[in-house]
Amino acid sequence: MQSVLGGVLLAGSFAGLCFWDKRLFKLKKEIIPLHVCACVVCVLFVFGLFHLLMAGALLLTMFGLAGLAFGFRSYTWIIRGNLLKTAAVCGACIWLLWKLYDSQGVMFASSNFSHYGPIAKYLLMYHTFPDKNTSLFDFYAYPPGTALFIYWGGRLLGRKAVYLVTMQTFLGLCSVTTLLASGKRRLSEIYIFVYTGVFFICAREGGNRAEELLVDVLLASLVIAAFFIATEYSEDETKAIVSLSPVLTLIVLVKNSGLFFAMFVFVYWLIVGKHTVKKMLCFLSFSGALLLWNIHVKIAFAGCESSENALSLSYWMQMFMQKDSDVFRELMVRFGRAQITFNNGRSFIVLYYIIWMLIIFILSRKTGYKYRKIMVLNTVLMTMYISYQIMLLMMYLFSFTSGQAQILSGYSRFNITALMILYGGMAITILCCPEIFQREKMQNAGVVCAIAFLTLATVKDIRFDLLGTKREQMDINGRAHQQFEYIKEKAHIEENLKQKLLIYVSEEEDSRFYSTFYLSKVAQYVFWSEHIQVVTAENVEELGKGDADWVILYIPDSEALEQAERIADNKVIICNWDKDSMDIVMGLRQCE
After folding, report:
1. Do 146 and 220 fall within a single domain?
2. Quick one: pLDDT at residue 518?
3. 52, 73, 177, 584 - which has most CB atoms within 10 Å?
4. Based on the domain organization, do 457 and 550 belong to the same domain?
5. Predicted confidence band at 338 (pLDDT cuts at 50, 70, 90)?
6. 581 and 490 share one domain
């Protein structure tokens, strides 16, 4: 009941904020939802720095509800206009609700539980930014961008994972629907459907599901939206400043690498628009936000400069000095191979983009200023991609451990952001400059080529997704989250930072299904405890009575059960897997 009432209030408040946005800034209605989301994050960020998150969220909600009441009769502007645009937005919302209902908010990638999930949950529980006394995060220096937006909605909906994922997915959809603002022709609007579908299918490789808390796909969609806004408002400096400033601030608050992408958007806007001092206001907004966050990190996490992925010179030098010549050699070989080996269909996007630029050059030789704008956009995007690869190499050298650098840990997930932005550049060219495809017999040729290229680039991923070759591993990973949530509910285990939980697994199960790290992070997030241990039969003898308040046992034999009861004083939860059907088979002891 709380989630239903909260959802109604949240929807009403968001609609009211959209009304105020339209009334104050006169932006296109398709851009307004993303602009509102970005402004919400910026406002909560400022309030959060002063430990006033709850007050900020309450003010935003009340301000939105006031806008709903004040402008109730003016809401025809939301649906007025092309019916296809309205259908696209409604279809996206229906897709969102269906996907989230189907997944029940079950998350898979470990980063959901090591950072993105915990930071959102922390804000909802304590209404303040975390400090050094919290050990539930692996990357304390990461900015809290998406967690702030989740916090605004989560206060009304609740803390369940499905609600957290809903808020973040909604933010991603708002960025995608921004592109509808330039749908001047039906073919361009139909292209939005192709663009959106292929975009989210591309994103699924390596666990980059759009309906999780990972921010790689979200960051790409936000950057694409920012490039689009800079293109659409290149002749209107005031609207460009008003719309870009909060969006670029949101980008830098979503992830540290957001500053890199925000700078390229800003440079592109400087080139294609008028050169005035006013544009520095936009630069000051996003650079100032990141500066404020770094100051907060130094104060709140004093003495933690050498923590993992910290933004400090001491940590970078520490990581660099631990790498020997063999590590450097292996890193350079693997990284170089990653640039020239097309091991999946999506990697061909880079090659297709080069072909795309040649097509644009041929089709737009006589289009004057539009030709310049188009070529500047595509040149900036290609320069951005090359620079991003160099930045990734520096990251492996200075920010990652030797073991992580040797295997290019996370490269596929990091690289998807840049690849998706290249893909978005094609969409922006079609939607913002359709006239280049309307000359003589070349009408619509560019759209056809783009759709063909982008479809071919993802054929391999689409085939794998339909055949379910990746689905099995995702289901295996998702079992831990799903089962721990079930255990917490049925065993009535309260979230307690000091509570000690022991996860007892067999060697076979540990190696086949989960890593120790993964299980511990999922349990830490679900049970909200700083004292999680994952043990096997080899080291369980070292534990004594009282070393755990609860034992989750994955070995249903009498000897293991006896050991578990000895440690946790009969507070044991016995768990088994039906590995064929992937259904959860539960047995509860001393918990019913």
Report:
1. yes
2. 81
3. 177
4. no
5. confident
6. yes
